[in-house]
User: Which sequence fits this backbone?
């Protein structure tokens, strides 16, 4: 028993030593590489990958790679040729995941289609052509889904005006669809009507949403862009609601 305890203690010390050495290498890479990436660029994390001895460099949601000494910078995606998996994209998708249950859904327009059991949240700008395409060509073909629409005004000051008028309408769902699907403007908002525009803008920036539409699913994953009905249905079908 005593020998076993000594062996376990020695193993623990070795693991701690390896971890310390790894942390030191990652810190060294950050110190060497960060000044070379450009003024104001900060490396959020450095970690060793399980492939090719490369180290992952994360700046925001962007992934780059380097060697152990930080002498080289590799820009691009790494693929596993045995499985054809895009390892870089899988890592980016993981970084972009959110906790869906923590979204402030009270800031969104809620639309229920069919039984509404499947759930998505969509960030859209009222002046976004791709968002209108998503509404017109995708959501019209998908049933049994609840859609939370966050009006994310990033394209122009007029986007704020349109979102305000829609939010302050007597029927927000109808006003949104009238504009996005039929091109019919909502009436001017009454004086003193408050909107969640600023809160939604801050939320989108916190979630690193740089374009619309941005679609979030119940498992926390996101898909950027106006995907078609087949892709949306496939994604929804693969998620446990």
Assistant:
């Amino acid at each position: 028993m005593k020998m076993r305890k000594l062996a376990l203690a020695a193993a623990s010390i070795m693991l701690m030593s390896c971890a310390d050495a790894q942390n030191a290498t990652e810190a060294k890479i950050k110190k060497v590489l960060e000044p070379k990436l450009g003024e104001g660029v900060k490396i959020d994390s450095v970690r060793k990958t399980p492939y090719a001895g490369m180290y992952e460099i994360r700046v925001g949601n962007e992934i780059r790679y380097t060697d152990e000494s930080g002498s080289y910078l590799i820009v691009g995606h790494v693929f596993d040729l045995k499985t054809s998996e895009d390892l870089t994209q899988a890592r980016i998708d993981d970084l972009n995941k959110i906790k869906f249950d923590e979204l402030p859904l009270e800031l969104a327009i809620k639309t229920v289609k069919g039984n509404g059991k499947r759930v998505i949240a969509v960030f859209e700008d009222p002046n976004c052509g791709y968002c209108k395409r998503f509404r017109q060509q995708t959501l019209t073909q998908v049933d049994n889904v609840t859609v939370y629409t966050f009006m994310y005004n990033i394209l122009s000051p007029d986007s704020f005006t349109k979102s305000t008028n829609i939010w302050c309408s007597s029927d927000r769902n109808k006003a949104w669809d009238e504009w996005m699907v039929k091109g019919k403007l909502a009436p001017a908002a009454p004086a003193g009507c408050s909107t969640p525009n600023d809160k939604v803008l801050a939320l989108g920036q916190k979630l690193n949403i740089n374009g619309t539409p941005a679609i979030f699913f119940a498992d926390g994953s996101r898909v950027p862009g106006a995907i078609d009905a087949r892709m949306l249905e496939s994604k929804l079908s693969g998620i446990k609601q």
About this structure: The domain at 100-237 is CATH 3.40.30.10 (Glutaredoxin).
